[in-house]
Amino acid sequence: MQEPHTRCGFVAVVGRPNVGKSTLTNALAGSKVSIVSRKHQTTRHRIHAVLTQGDHQFVFVDTPGFQTRHQSTLNSMMNRVVTQTLGQVDVILHLVEANKWSAGDEQILPLLPANSKCILVISKIDEVKDKNSLFAFVQGIVQKYPYEAVVPISALKGIQTDVLLSEIAKYLPASEFMFEADALTDRPVRFLAAELIREKIFRLVGDELPYACTVVIEKWQQLDQGVHINACVIVEKEGHRPILLGAGGQHMKRIATEARQDIKELLDQPVFLEIYIKVRKGWADKVSLLKELGYE
Q1: N or C terminus of the chain with fewer C-beta within 10 Å?
Q2: Residues 48 and 60 sit within 8 Å (Cβ to Cβ)
Q3: Residues 91, 172: contact at Cβ < 8 Å?
Q4: Residue 258: what pLDDT?
Q5: Residues 270-288: pLDDT tens digits?
Q6: What is the C-alpha radius of gyration for the chain, rounded to an integer number of angstroms?
Q7: Which residues contact 276 (CB under 8 A, 6 or more apart)?
Q8: CA 165 to chain CA centroid, nearest Å
Q9: Residues 6+ apart with CB under 8 A from 100
Q10: What Cα–Cα distance (Å) separates residue 208 from each residue in 9, 92, 217, 231, 249?
C-alpha cells in the first residue's frame, strides 16, 4: 500500500497549572479553542484544536494542568486525562516559563514517557531582559530529560511560533487527515459556548468560586433571528449564589454580556443568552454526576 503523502498527528501541550498551555494551543491553532484566565486550573477537559497547513495537519491536545494541591474526584479525573494523553500522542510539547522552574514543573518530568518525541518550549521570552540567562536555564532542564529540541517562544506576541510548528512537523507520522481541512476543533459549539461562560466566571469572580462551579448548556434553540441559549452555572454551596450574582446582580450581568459577545463572534450570528444558577452539593466529588456533566 502506498504511503499517504500527508502527515497528521496528535500534539499534547503539557505543563504545570497556569503556565500558559491554553494560550499556546490557541496561538498555534490560530483560533480561540481553549479558554484562558490568570487563575490556576482553568482547563478541565481534553480539547483538540486542529490546524491544517498544506499537507500537514496538527491536532493539538490542550490538557489540564497536573494538579497536586487540591484533592477531589474532579482533579483526580483531570490528572488521569493528562497521564493517558501523554501515552497516546505523537509529539509532546513541555511548556516551561522562561527562567522560572518550580516544583510544579519538576512534577511533570516523571509523566513524560520514555522515548517520546518531546520538545521543550520556553515561553514568555519577550519578558526576559537578559537573554544570556536563558542558556544556563535551558541547560539545567535538558539534563533532566532527553528532549528532541528546544524552542523559545512568545505565544502572545507570536514570536517563533512558526519555528515551533516547523519543528513539530518533523515528527508527525505519515497519515491521512483526521479532520476536514477547515475544522477548528472536535468539540461541538455547545461545549465551546459553555467554556466561554466559564472563562468569564474565572476572570470576573473571586478566587474560590470558579473552582466550585461548572457550566452546562441546558437549551439551544436555533431561530431565524439567532440562537437562544439557556445556560446553567452549577455551584456547590448556597453561599456561592450571591457571590456569583454580585451586588445588584452586576457580576452575572457582566458575565452574561461578555460571554454573549464571544459566543456571537464564535457563531457569527445574534445570540440571546440566559444564565441561571443551581446548587448541587459535592458535584466535584461525585463520579456519576461528573460523567453526566461531560467530564472524562
Answers
A1: N
A2: yes
A3: yes
A4: 93
A5: 999 999 999 888 776 766 5
A6: 20
A7: 230, 231, 232, 233
A8: 18
A9: none
A10: 37, 31, 22, 21, 18
